[in-house]
Amino acid sequence: MSTTAMSASSASSHGYKKLILRSYEGYTYRDVSDHPARDCTDDEVPIVDLSGMFGDLEARKAVAQSLLKAAETSGFFYIKNHGIDENVLLGAHHKAREFFRLPVEQKQKLSTTESSYGYQGLRSRQVNPSEGKDRKEVFNFHYEPQFDPVHKDQLSEVPARVRKHIPNDFSAIWQPNGVEGFKEEVLAYWQACLSTARELIRLVSLALDLPEDYFDRYTTYPGGDFGLVFYPGHGDEQIENPDEVGIGAHTDLQILTLLWQDEHKGLQVLNSQNEWIFAPPIPGTLVVNIGDFLMRLTNDRLKSTVHRVIQHGRDDRYSMPFFFGFNFDEKIAVVPTCTDERNPPKYEPATCGELIAKRLALGNQPVKSS
Ligand SMILES: O=C(O)CCC(=O)C(=O)O
Ligand SMILES: [Fe+2]
């Protein structure tokens, strides 16, 4: 996402605000209700029970159908019975809590200049050009073959085209930081997410009437960006700016996002009536949402939906998003089952890497407000 703060007007009139969004194609604009968000209904962001994902083909197809319905409407759903060990998940969360409590100078030692790896401080980023700076701290990292259980024992076989995407300064972020077991526990959860995402994409194939392994060849060295995110609570402080965002409105860039959120509400999803709805935390679930590249590959059938976080509670909020993507350099066309004579492909084959680079480059360009 963008690393450059910019200012642009977000004039309010008749209960609507103009929202500027970054997309692969450039800037897009939406008039969005400025009414306070309400909670989503069970239909808008449904719970998909993944138990059947580990069953026979019939059971897998049944789960795929419920996933498809959600992916075609709001593009957001909760998953339960996802198979990720609660202890692994909470292990990473507890390390995140310890990490963000470290003195800021210590956290800043884990910042990088070449890449977006490592620590990013409070209000140092602005994801949305028409909202303010993000009131959050983050510890980020990206896919590394050496952490992927599929490749960690055959690192000499990692192709040069994959190595090319690993920045030189990546290992700096893993130096000891004062939190015992930080790297081990965080990576254990990242690995669980990676394996769940590789399973989920097989369900997506089934849902789209494709062979179950259709996308497998695109997930050998996949995108696996991860963030520990900390939205500090306001405690007894007065909220000075009711519009201040934790993370500004955006769509996720890649294939699927798996988001763990703690018990504090904050995640808002923009529905098709341009109203904000909360996707509140539900114990035992992760939130899954479709990314821009999957929307494109399905000829816009699966929806990549705008979302943001506003954290105005007294308490701190923590979340852990895992962004699953396809191999960065693989040119992929719109899938055959999402097109026909009346609905030809809207997009040329493209690589995930080139489109992401295009969108990130927008962060360095001036914004037109309409
Ligand atoms: O923290 C959250 O609940 C959502 C974060 C998010 O949307 C992102 O990092 O892309
Ligand atoms: Fe997001």
UniProtKB/TrEMBL annotation:
The UniProt keywords, alphabetically, are: Iron, Metal-binding, Oxidoreductase
Q: Which family does it belong to?
A: Belongs to the iron/ascorbate-dependent oxidoreductase family.
Domain Fe2OG dioxygenase, by residue range, is 218-326
Q: What is this protein called?
A: Fe2OG dioxygenase domain-containing protein
Q: Which PANTHER family match?
A: FI07970P-RELATED, OXIDOREDUCTASE, 2OG-FE II OXYGENASE FAMILY PROTEIN
List the coiled-coil residues. Answer: none
Taken from the record, one Pfam family name reads: DIOX_N
Organism the protein comes from: Neonectria punicea
